[in-house]
Specification:
Blueprint: E1 2-9, E2 17-25, E3 31-35, E4 38-43, E5 47-51, H1 52-56, H2 59-70, E6 74-76, E7 81-86, E8 105-116, E9 121-134, E10 140-152, H3 157-185, E11 191-198, E12 210-211, E13 216-222
Antiparallel strand pairs: 1-2, 1-4, 2-12, 3-4, 5-13, 6-8, 7-8, 8-9, 9-10, 11-13
Helix pairs in contact: 2-3
Length: 223
């Protein structure tokens, strides 16, 4: 039986606290609408859902990223957050506005860390944007689209940025590695449609509130 999921965004589209409710439906066709910050999805029983937060924010992946940051004299201070972001809201959108369609959504993987510079530490947040899509064979693919580094502090910012830029190839290599299980989990299945859901993609009746800034799921319908 399909499920009609309603996501009421309280702090912005795919941002912050979301009230989530599910109700059963006998209609096995996919449907979706957005009205007054409420996203409604009719999710067929044949849905293949992937909890990206659970796949990415693992102890092993946290350890991989933390190890690479050590080389930049930095220490990880948060988990790996996974969030959906519409293309025009991505920080580097204005550099490449035609890269994606305005309604396309990217996957933002972000984490916080401190960088050791003379006198004091610099706080930083690195956001890595991923683009998931169905290729010409209708198979799921995920690739790194771009990055954005935000630094906080009064002095030492240039030194900190150079340290992170030097470590960036190794960090991105680790991110690329952690994407492989996501694609492998979908196998060589051909999908007809792909969509995003805040949280874990739960189908349970009476689902609890979710934090869209920390977890994101992708739904896939078999072709």
């Amino acid at each position: 039986m399909s499920v009609i999921s309603k996501y009421h965004f309280l702090q912005g589209f795919f941002n912050g606290l979301v009230l989530h409710t599910n109700q059963p439906s006998s209609d096995e066709t996919f449907g979706g609408s957005l009205d007054n910050n409420v996203l409604t999805l009719r999710r067929p029983n044949a849905e293949h859902a992937i909890d990206l937060g659970a796949q990415i924010n693992t102890d092993a992946n946290i350890g991989r990223i933390a190890k690479q940051l050590i080389g930049a004299h930095a220490s990880l201070t948060s988990d790996l957050r996974v969030q959906g972001v519409v293309w025009p809201s991505v920080p580097y959108f204005f550099k490449f506005p035609a890269r994606h369609l305005p309604r396309d959504m990217l996957i933002k993987v972000s984490f916080d860390f401190d960088i050791d510079v003379p006198i004091w530490d610099i706080g930083a947040t690195l956001s890595i944007y991923l683009f998931a899509f169905l290729d010409s064979k209708k198979h799921l693919q995920v690739r790194i689209d771009g990055t954005h580094l935000a630094l906080t502090g009064l002095i030492g910012l240039e030194i900190a940025q150079k340290k992170i830029e030097a470590a960036m190839p190794q960090v991105l290599a680790q991110v690329d590695e952690l994407l492989k299980p996501i694609v492998a989990g979908a196998g060589n299945i051909q999908f007809a449609h792909m969509y995003y859901m805040p949280g874990k993609g739960s189908r349970a009746i009476g689902a609890p509130p979710v934090n869209a800034s920390h977890d994101l799921s992708v739904g896939l319908l078999v072709a």
